[in-house]
Amino acid sequence: MQEELSTTRQSQVAEQLSHMEKNTATLHAVINFLEERLEPVLRKEPSKEAEGLKDRNEIAPLAFTLEGLGDSVKSAVRKLEDILTRLEL
Hints:
This protein has helices spanning 2-38, 61-86. By secondary structure, the chain is mainly α. The chain has one domain (2-41, 58-86). α1 (2-38) packs parallel to α2 (61-86). The chain is elongated, with a radius of gyration of 18 Å. The N and C termini lie far apart (61 Å).
């Protein structure tokens, strides 16, 4: 019984992680499309997406995945802020 419950929980976690990964990828795709559409009214400035990598050898796999998703969302926010800064409207 406990093994079945554990499998169910893990499946739900894996399912939700998959949804988060897909939604994050869609967010980045929409941001890139927005930037392409706004290009005629955006100043040409270098992007500020340089980010140092952390040592991730001792992080649990789920924590590693969640950290990656969090980093991806932060990247999306920075990209949107960059677009707003360069917008000439």
